[in-house]
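Final report, closing paragraph on structural work. Over the funding period we assembled a curated collection of sequence-structure pairs, and we close with a single example.
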Amino acid sequence: MPYKIKVSGDAERDVRHLPGHLRQRARRLISALTGEPKPPGTKELRGYSGYFRIRIDGWRVIYRIYEPEQIILVLRIRKKIGPATYSDLG
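Its predicted structure, as stored:
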């Protein structure tokens, strides 16, 4: 059974503000999570159980998987700037 995708308001705004060449790639990647919530290259964030990130060039798609409900909540899409990229998630 496919996962359901929910995108936070912050993540929707982040997608709109991505550079044009990355915007469509990010949308396709998010849509593909319904069939494969942990595609190759996905990493779980240290210190944040259930939180994952996928790289798109210098950007990170940050999301959380709720296994029992089979829901993926896309939280943010941020430019990688060091540890601060993942601050204020929880």
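The chain has a mean pLDDT of 92. The chain has one domain: 4-81. We thank the funder for supporting this effort.
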